[in-house]
C-alpha cells in the first residue's frame, strides 16, 4: 500500500501576556500562522520558534514581559517578540541581543513575516487547514470580539493612546461577519472589547454599511443591536461613561444584550476625576444607575477604580467609599496607582506613599466584598440562567457563569449534580447558596 509521508510542519510556541485585547491579537496571529501551515507547540522544547506577545501597560507588566522573553530565550533561544512592549525595541534588544525580531502591537504582517523567516513554512494541504472561525485561544463557547483599537481620550494615568494610537474602529459589517462565523462555530457568548467601546464609530463618522440587506451605522447602539440578533449572549466591556450609553439599556430590557455593563469609572471624587482627565459627573452617574436599574432591575455593573492617584487626599478617598456605598456596584476591581513611564500622572506632585495606597486598596476591597456578598445573598432561592464553562466528571459537579459574570474577572456558579452537562450548555439553575464572589446551585433540568 502506498502511503503518503506528510511533511512535518514547523511548530510555534506562544506566550501571550496582557489584557483580552492582546489575547485577541494572539488569536489573529495564530490563526494566520495556522492557515500558513504551522502547528502550535505546547512547550518550549518542541517549538521551532517562540512568539512572546508582550504587555507594556504598566511598569510591572513590562517587567513581566521582559521576564517572559528571558525565559523563552533560555529555554528555546529562537524568540520573536511582539505586542505593546514591541514599541520599546531598543530596551528589548539591549537586554536580549539574541531576539530574532521585535514588532509592535497590531503589526500582524510583520510578526507573521518574522516567524516565516525564523522557521519557513512547509506547504501541505494537510497542515494548512484552519477552522472556519479561526484558531481560538479561548474555549469554543465564548469569544472576545474586538471592535476597535486605540483611544481618543488622554487619561492622565494611561499610556494606551501612545502605544496604540487614536481610535480606529473596524467596519460594522466586518465585525458582524466575524461574530456570525463565531456563533456558527459554537460560540455562545460574545464579549465585546476595545479600549473605548462607547466611542465605536466616531472615527468613521458613524457612516452606514450594508449587512444582510440592512443598513447598519458604525455606532455602538446599532452594532450591538445587530450582534444581539445572532442568538448568542452579548456582553459589553470597557464602556466609557458617555451619556449615550443609556441607549443600550433598552436593548438589555429587550433581551438582545446581557444585562451587564463594564464601565471603568476610575474614581468618584470630582477633584481626582478632573486630575485624571475623566468626566467628573459622579452625581449624575448615581442617578443614571438608578434609571438603569428601574428599566433593567437585574443589571450587573462592573467597574474599576484607581486608588492612591497623585493628590488623592483622605477626604477624596472617603468620598469614593461613600459613593461606592451608594452606587452598590455588583463587581469592583481596584488598582493601586502605579507611575508609568510616559504617563502625565507620573510627574504630578503629591504622589501618595505606597503604604497609604495599600491601606486604601484594602478598604475599597473590603467594602466591595461586603456589597458583593449582600448582592449575591439576595440571589439565593432564585432561578437564573447559567452558561457552563467546565464539567468535572469525577465529582459530578460543573462550573459556569450567570449573566452577571464575565469570564476570568467576575464570579462563578458552582453546580452539584451536573456531571451530565457539557461546556457551552445554557440552563436554568436554582441558587442554593452564595459567598462573597460565587454562587452555588443545582440544575433544574437534565
Ligand atoms: S479611556 Fe481607557 S484607554 Fe483611553 S486613555 Fe483613558 S484609560 Fe487609557
UniProtKB/TrEMBL annotation:
Cited Gene3D superfamilies: Methylthiotransferase, N-terminal domain, Nucleic acid-binding proteins, tm_1862 like domain
EC code(s) of this entry: 2.8.4.4
Annotated positions binding [4Fe-4S] cluster 2: 151, 155, 158
Keywords: 4Fe-4S, Cytoplasm, Iron, Iron-sulfur, Metal-binding, Ribonucleoprotein, Ribosomal protein, S-adenosyl-L-methionine, Transferase
GO CC annotation: ribosome
SMART domains: Elp3 (SM00729)
Reactions the enzyme catalyzes: L-aspartate(89)-[ribosomal protein uS12]-hydrogen + (sulfur carrier)-SH + AH2 + 2 S-adenosyl-L-methionine = 3-methylsulfanyl-L-aspartate(89)-[ribosomal protein uS12]-hydrogen + (sulfur carrier)-H + 5'-deoxyadenosine + L-methionine + A + S-adenosyl-L-homocysteine + 2 H(+)
Domain Radical SAM core: 137-374
Binding sites annotated in the UniProt record for [4Fe-4S] cluster 1: 19, 55, 84
Co-factor binding comment: Binds 2 [4Fe-4S] clusters. One cluster is coordinated with 3 cysteines and an exchangeable S-adenosyl-L-methionine.
Main location (coarse class): cytoplasm
Signal peptide: none
Catalytic class of the enzyme: transferase
Molecular function GO terms recorded: protein methylthiotransferase activity
Boundaries of every TRAM domain copy: 377-445
One Pfam family cited in the UniProt record for this chain: UPF0004
Subcellular location: Cytoplasm
Domain of life: Bacteria
Described function: Catalyzes the methylthiolation of an aspartic acid residue of ribosomal protein uS12.
PANTHER family associated with the record: RIBOSOMAL PROTEIN S12 METHYLTHIOTRANSFERASE RIMO, RIBOSOMAL PROTEIN US12 METHYLTHIOTRANSFERASE RIMO
Family listed: Belongs to the methylthiotransferase family. RimO subfamily.
Record's protein name: Ribosomal protein uS12 methylthiotransferase RimO
Species whose genome carries this gene: Sphingomonas anseongensis
